[in-house]
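Newbie here. two chains, one complex. Structure please?
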Amino acid sequence: MGDCICAERMINSTSNPQIKNLIQLQTKAKARKEQGLFVAEGVRMYREAPRGRLVKTYVSESFYGKEQNQALFSGQDVEIVSDRAFAAACDTRTPQGVLCVIRQKAYELPELLQAKRPFLLLLEDLQDPGNLGTIFRTAEAAGVTGIVMSARTADIYNPKTVRATMGSVYRMPFCIVSDFAPVMAALREQHIRTYAAHLKGTREYTEADYRTGCAFLIGNEGAGLSGELAGMADTYIRISMSGQTESLNAAVAAAVLMFEARRQRMSENTGAAV
Amino acid sequence: MGDCICAERMINSTSNPQIKNLIQLQTKAKARKEQGLFVAEGVRMYREAPRGRLVKTYVSESFYGKEQNQALFSGQDVEIVSDRAFAAACDTRTPQGVLCVIRQKAYELPELLQAKRPFLLLLEDLQDPGNLGTIFRTAEAAGVTGIVMSARTADIYNPKTVRATMGSVYRMPFCIVSDFAPVMAALREQHIRTYAAHLKGTREYTEADYRTGCAFLIGNEGAGLSGELAGMADTYIRISMSGQTESLNAAVAAAVLMFEARRQRMSENTGAAV
């Protein structure tokens, strides 16, 4: 009887309205914004999804058909989808068989500043979805307390970005701003020091002290930080490099800075030498 | 008259044998290996190509048609290719208009150990072409003196990898080995300390001293280092993480380790505290 009910309920067609809407959510930032939703793929992203924001879960017929997989969904309402229709709704080429629709969460800047020793990232116009997701993942690991992004930064809810965050998109507080000037003013007011990562920086990044409230400003992959935003920073820092390399990948540069801050913050030595 | 000669010489067809071979070199690791060649795309990769290893340069008709571009090729023998045939030979979707064929360069392990204070990376079965290229780029910037890769690591000459290296593929000495045991023995003999980056490591990576000869062992994205290789390392290290992140992206983890080593090596403080 159970099997019959499942089969009757199963979504079979790629023109089913739910599948069509999943495709919209996967491919169109505008649809995601209007509906306040995004899609996360894979078992891990389903497992880590905050239950209060989990709107709907779709499972492929063949994934659900394996008995050992069903325990994953016990007590949860899931929608079974034929493999073909499921694949159409996926961004990945070899879907694992689980897709979930998640409610977006909006933070306000003041929430990001409430941490005891704020540790922030300010991202200006980052373009690569994979880089952006990797930065979120790295930031959570480094202990970053919040991320502020310019409105021209890649969409955090792009499926490739969501995947690259490895779940950090659920947990990292972030907000999107159209103008950094009020942000910079708020940081200054709260004595959060701002560091512009800049190829023209003269101060080596290892020589600054990040143990108090701090924020790193990371610029666009090609153009770096705008002069306008860099000009508002307290300190220009640079990562000196060997060889003939002219720059680091944006996610790598951000990682090097964040983990130097983490190193200093973890250090029990609270004296001058860090 | 000059224009006429160009037009006569121009490759027009995607079935031209040179274009067909470029496609082979772009898409087949086997073809690259048999011919000992690889393809690099873009103006930057052309500019930085070691002239002694530059076998042939192809330029798209429209790129060559712009007078300001021709200075790039002064004194060099280039082959003009119609835009359509050129696009067929490219891996990138929006080709810049320059493609070059480069001779591969083979290094032997002893060459990698000749540096005064060797600083090595050992990569075991890394799978993502972009990660591998980013690691080469980061390694050059961090001052790494050589990279040893397992035979099952992604192909360094994959077009996506070559692109991600941003030219480091030309300059970073590397070799590919089928067995790490003799490598580890050679490192031990030369007092180069080996550090296995491992989620099970107990020693924080910031607590080790990398100022003498050192080598980091980096494992596969999904599986991490094999027990066999990790077991041969002098020291297990770990990068402790905040939040719920379980791991870092492989290129990010490698960057964090390499730049900590660089920080220590650059430090003028040669005492115990680093």
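Moderator note: The first helix of chain A runs from residue 2 to 9. The CA atoms of residues 119 and 144 of chain A lie 5 Å apart. Thread marked as resolved.
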